[in-house]
Amino acid sequence: MHPPTHMRARAPIGNSGPDSLSYFIPLHPLLGVWTMHGERERERESLLLLPDRSAGAMEGGGEHHHPLSVFLRDARLAFRWDELGQEIMRIAVPGALALMADPVASLVDTAFIGHIGPVELGAVGVSIAVFNQVSRIAVFPLVSVTTSFVAEEDAMSNGRDNDKIHQQNERNVSVSEMDELIPPEGASASTSISSFETDSCEVSVEQKRKNIPSVSTALLLGGVLGLLETLLLVLSAKPILGYMGVKPDSAMMKPALQYLVLRSLGAPAVLLSLAIQGVFRGFKDTKTPLYATVAGDAINIVLDPIFMFVFQYGVSGAAIAHVISQYFIASILLWRLRLHVDLLPPSFKHLQFGRFLKNGFLLLARVIAATCCVTLSASMAARLGSTPMAAFQICLQTWLACSLLADGLAFAGQAILASAFARKDYPKATATASRILQLALVLGLLLSILLGVGLRIGSRLFTSDQGVLHHIYIGIPFVCLTQPINALAFVFDGINYGASDFGYAAYSMVLVAVVSIICILTLESYGGFIGIWIALVIYMSLRMFAGFWRIGTAQGPWAYLRG
Q: What is the C-alpha to C-alpha distance for residues 507 and 366, in angstroms, rounded to an integer?
């Protein structure tokens, strides 16, 4: 029932028209306390009529379906350019481009070194393989853990900030309403009423740097691991190269040793910059790492011919140019990062070494297990002879290079899911997992078509040897047809990390590796070149199945899907 007309106090709130009328009803005639009724009150009343939205009701993301339905949920909307689709693309596209920038720069490096001579080219190839493998062992766990933890803490920090803003807005609204009803002495009613039309309800929040302990922890670990890698490679470069097949009296030993020792001086910059990239991914910002990486690679390409040919440093010049570019990238990222967060924690106790090391060692086991499978397959191919080995390397590198595009989607899934799980926003988590997996499947199908056409035509760019080409043609069906499997497997990695399901990611990979190693050893003895590729298909299929199993059975962080 509406109060009498003379008791109504109109205030222009939102839309015009009869539905937008707002008036005040006295709660008690003696107290003289009034409450605003109308549009805002109707909104509050409507909330009371909604179905139960308690934590228990929301945990399943609203309506409950079978967990397997996650994979097909809203499949026809996979390419919908909505808020979620835009968020995924903002993270995935720059992330994939940043990953592709380094291989392009490495190709330019290789081209310059190739002009020095074949011995130097082979020596640098071995040194780069050693450096990348040692770095990967430390980089992969550090970056993956950093991305998830930063995304979680950033989401929680934003939630606290939003609560403060909401509370301040409520106080401002209350003050404005009281000023409306009880204007100061001497002030006109029109002046009081107009207060609703001002921006007094908006809170001006000073933009300040955030304090996120995971950022400080990641930076410190990145720097320390980089220094340890430098010491390891400088002190044991010669034995490691010998283990890789470079004999002490070989012509390759001297240039390989020079390049590896100098390149190792850039390890702290590499680890630090990649840790910062993990931080930015946690902030859902992959553009900043892309710009820094492209700028650093451009510096590398410019400095290569200067140090190698103008200063006549040869192989050492290539290493120096690369080290300078890495420190340049780290400097840019560090400068940009300090604008957003405090680099130093309030105290040493705020650092999260225990959390990082626990999950980092789990992912370290995962990296070792995955590396064993790929390395063993290459070793088995080498036993077949130089011709099958050359074809295998070309197919394998093409096979793995396409994963860079899927990794972009994995980055997006990890960052968005980590944020959603931190806020307990399970509907967002479910929708994100569904959309990412559907996009990965489509990406894999497109890559299958492109590689099916391009690899058969472009294989002659790699070699003109008929024996090698014959084996490449044998490997093409495996490389092409497994792209959807690969894309889904890599994206499931990002989903597991986003859900902070590091334990399952590690244990499942170890189990997959054990089965895959048995398959590689068995099938190679029976099927040779084809047997190795069948074993690799089994390896990637098991990785994909492990991801499906975790979500499809609603285990671990996905238990909420059971309702």
A: 7
How do residues 453-467 score in pLDDT, each as one tens digit? 888 888 887 778 888
C-alpha R_g of the chain = 30
Query: Mean pLDDT lowest for which of 82-91, 168-177, 341-350, 515-524?
Result: 168-177
The chain-wide mean pLDDT, for the chain, equals 82
pTM: 0.78
What's CA 549's distance to the chain center, in Å?
A: 22
- Segment of 64-68, 114-118, 203-207, 296-300 carrying the highest mean pLDDT: 296-300
**223 sits in which H/E element:** helix 213-243
Q: Are 264 and 237 in contact (CB under 8 A)?
A: yes
Q: Is 37 helix (H, G, I), strand (E, B) or coil?
A: strand
The residue among 414, 478, 473, 471 whose CA lies nearest residue 448 is 478
Average pLDDT, integer, range 531-536: 96
User: Which H or E run includes 25?
Assistant: strand 23-28
Q: What is the 3-state secondary structure (H, E, C) of 355-380?
A: HHHHHHHHHHHHHHHHHHHHHHHHHH
C-alpha distances out from residue 105 to 98, 116, 265, 325, Å:
11, 18, 19, 11
In terms of Cα–Cα distance, which of 402, 393, 394 is closest to 448?
402
- Domain interval for residue 413: 69-80+363-563
* Number of domains present in the structure of the chain: 3
For the record, the structure tokens of 531 come out as 């047997």
**What tokens appear for 445 in the block?**
């199908």
Instruction: Tell me the average pLDDT across 137-145.
Output: 92
Residue type, 260: L
- The phi, psi pair for 441, rounded to 5°, reads -65, -45
d(CA 444, CA 486): 7
Site of tokens 């070989």: 250
Judge if 287 and 213 occupy the same domain. Answer: yes
Quick one: tokens of 519?
A: 């398959």
Instruction: Report if residue 356 sits inside a domain.
Output: no
Cβ-proximal residues to 196 (8 Å cutoff; 6+ apart), any chain: 11, 12, 13, 176, 180
Question: Is 179 inside any structural domain?
Answer: no
How much is the pLDDT for 177? 55
User: What percent of the residues of the chain are helix, what percent strand, and what percent coil, each to the nearest 5?
Assistant: 75, 0, 20
226 within 8 A of 270, measured Cβ to Cβ: yes
End of a domain among 325, 351, 377? Answer: 351
State pLDDT tens for residues 186-240.
444 444 444 434 444 444 444 567 889 999 999 999 999 999 999 999 999 999 9
**Count H helices, E strands: the chain?**
17, 2
Q: Count of residues for the chain?
A: 563
N-terminal to C-terminal alpha carbon distance within the chain: 42
